[in-house]
Amino acid sequence: MESGLNSSTFWLAIALVLLVEGFMPFVSPATWRETFLQILKFSDGQLRFFGLLSLLLGLTLIWWLA
Predict the structure, then answer these.
(1) What span, in angstroms and rounded, lies between the C-alpha atoms of 49 and 46?
(2) Is residue 24 exposed (0-12), middle (13-18) or buried (19+ Cβ within 10 Å)?
(3) Per the confidence metrics, is the pTM higher than 0.70?
């Protein structure tokens, strides 16, 4: 079994991101739009906090799964 990141794995990860990102606008566009309007009201500090949380969660999942 091949280990490491190859082209196929990379494109599979991109496809999964697109599936997750496209779900809400497809299922409930009004809710998606309202959510983004609320996000636009966040301060830079709040956006950075959620960005950091997302990065740490992603790194934790990668570490746990790898």
Answers:
(1) 5
(2) middle
(3) no
